[in-house]
C-alpha cells in the first residue's frame, strides 16, 4: 500500500471555556505501519458529541483525559482498508472510539462491525443506532423505569437524545414534557414528535413555575441532559419516588469555575427520589437488542429523528461549538468521504430522517 498521509485535529492545550483554534490544530502526518492485531480505517463519518468537551479537560471522568499532543477523541464510522486482525477484512464497516481524523488505526477488539440494512444510511450507526438512540433507549427505560400514566420531563428535548426520550415516553404511555431553548424546537417536539407540552427555558421568567404549569401532576421521571438551573427548577416539581436519569450536564461543560449546586438537592431526600448516573457504554453487550427495537419503531413510523451532517474534516470545531449555542438541529455528524448516500444529498435519507448536508448548512444555522 502506498504511504498514506493523515490529517488529524490535535489537542494542543486544555481549553478554557469554548474550544478555539488556540486549543486544537489540524495537522497532517504520514500514517505509521499497522502492527499485529490492528486495523486501518478510512473514516467516513465522525460523531460530534458534547462529551468530547469533557474529555479535553483534566476533570476525572469515565474515560481518561485526551493527552496533549494526541488526536481529539471521538466515535467514528469508517471502512476497513487494511487489517492485521482476524475479525476484520478490507471493505468491512466498523464503528469505534477513534478521533477527528481522516484515517484511524485501532485494535480490532475495540471496533464494532456494522452492517446497514437496505435503505439505511451508514451514519445511522453514529445517531439512531449509535450513542444517541441507545442512550435514549437504555437511559430512559433502564434508569427512568417509566410507568404508563406517569409524567416524564426531558431537558435538551429538541436535541438528539432528548427528542428520542420524549417519543419513547409517549410509546410507553407516559405524558412527555420537553424543555428546549427556542420556539422552533418547542413547536417541533410538540407538533411533529407528539410531546404533550414544551417549555422554552431561555424565555421563561420563572422556570420552576413554568414546569409546575406544564406538569400539573408533578414529575415522575426527569431525564436530565443539562444540569444547572434547569435541574434546580425541576427538583422543586418532583413527585414522591421520582427518578432522575443523570445523562448529561451540558450547561457546565464549558464552565471555568467549579459548578455550583444543585441548590435544591434536599428534595432528593424529601421526596425519596432516585438519582442515577447513566453511561451508554455500560450497555454494550445489549446494543443489538436496542438496535432491533429502535429499527422496528422506525419501520412502523413510531419514532423520527434528525441528523445534521456537515461536510469536511476542517469543520469539526465549528460544528462542535454549535452544540453549546443550541444551534444544532439534530445529531451532529461530520462527513469525510462521499458514499453512496451522497446521491441523495440534501434530501431525506429515509422517511424517518431529515439530513441537512454540507458546510453551507453550517452557515445557515448560525
Ligand atoms: N451518559 C451518556 O452515556 C450519554 C451519551 C450521549 C449523550 N449524553 C449527554 O446527553 C446530552 C445531550 O447530548 P446530544 O448529543 O443529544 O446533544 P444535543 O441535545 O443534540 O445538543 C446539545 C443541546 O444542549 C442544549 N444546551 C447547550 N448549552 C446549554 C445550556 N447552557 N443549558 C441548557 N441547555 C443547553 C442545546 O439545546 P437548547 O437549544 O435546548 O439549549 C443544545 O442543542 C449531553 O449532555 C450529552 O453529554 C450522555
UniProtKB/TrEMBL annotation:
InterPro entries: ADH-like_C (IPR013149), ADH_N_2 (IPR041694), ER (IPR020843), MDR_fam (IPR045010). The keyword Oxidoreductase applies. Residues 19-334 form the Enoyl reductase (ER) domain. The keyword Oxidoreductase applies. Keywords: Oxidoreductase. This is NADP-dependent oxidoreductase. It comes from Geopseudomonas aromaticivorans.
Amino acid at each position: 500500500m502506498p504511504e498514506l498521509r493523515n490529517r488529524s485535529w490535535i489537542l494542543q492545550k486544555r481549553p478554557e471555556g469554548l474550544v478555539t483554534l488556540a486549543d486544537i490544530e489540524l495537522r497532517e502526518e504520514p500514517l505509521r505501519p499497522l502492527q499485529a492485531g490492528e486495523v486501518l480505517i478510512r473514516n467516513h463519518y465522525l460523531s460530534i458529541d458534547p462529551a468530547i468537551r469533557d474529555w479535553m479537560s483534566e476533570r476525572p471522568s469515565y474515560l481518561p483525559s485526551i493527552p496533549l499532543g494526541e488526536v481529539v477523541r471521538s466515535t467514528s464510522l469508517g471502512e476497513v482498508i487494511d487489517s492485521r486482525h482476524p475479525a476484520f477484512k478490507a471493505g468491512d464497516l466498523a464503528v469505534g472510539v477513534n478521533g477527528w481524523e481522516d484515517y484511524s488505526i485501532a485494535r480490532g477488539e475495540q471496533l464494532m462491525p456494522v452492517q446497514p440494512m437496505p435503505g439505511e444510511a451508514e451514519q445511522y450507526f453514529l445517531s439512531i443506532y449509535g450513542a444517541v438512540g441507545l442512550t435514549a433507549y437504555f437511559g430512559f427505560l433502564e434508569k427512568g423505569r417509566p410507568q404508563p400514566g406517569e409524567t416524564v420531563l426531558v431537558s435538551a428535548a429538541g436535541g438528539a437524545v432528548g427528542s428520542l426520550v420524549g417519543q419513547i415516553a409517549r410509546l410507553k404511555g407516559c405524558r412527555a414534557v420537553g424543555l428546549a431553548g427556542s420556539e422552533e424546537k418547542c413547536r417541533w417536539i410538540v407538533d411533529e414528535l407528539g410531546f404533550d407540552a414544551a417549555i422554552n427555558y431561555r424565555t421563561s421568567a420563572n422556570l420552576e413555575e413554568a414546569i409546575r404549569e406544564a406538569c400539573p401532576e408533578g414529575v415522575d421521571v426527569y431525564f436530565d441532559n443539562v444540569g444547572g438551573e434547569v435541574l434546580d427548577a425541576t427538583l422543586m416539581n418532583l413527585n414522591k419516588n421520582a427518578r432522575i436519569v443523570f445523562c448529561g450536564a451540558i450547561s457546565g461543560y464549558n464552565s471555568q469555575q467549579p459548578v455550583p449546586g444543585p441548590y435544591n438537592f434536599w428534595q432528593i431526600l424529601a421526596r425519596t427520589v432516585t438519582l442515577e448516573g447513566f453511561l451508554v457504554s455500560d450497555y454494550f453487550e445489549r446494543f443489538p437488542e436496542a438496535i432491533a427495537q429502535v429499527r422496528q419503531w422506525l419501520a412502523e413510523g413510531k419514532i423520527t429523528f434528525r441528523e445534521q451532517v456537515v461536510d469536511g474534516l476542517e469543520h469539526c470545531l465549528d460544528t462542535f461549538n454549535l452544540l453549546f449555542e443550541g444551534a444544532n438541529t439534530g445529531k451532529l455528524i461530520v462527513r469525510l468521504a462521499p458514499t453512496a448516500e451522497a446521491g441523495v444529498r440534501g434530501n431525506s435519507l429515509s422517511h424517518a430522517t431529515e439530513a441537512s448536508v454540507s458546510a453551507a448548512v453550517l452557515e445557515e444555522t448560525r
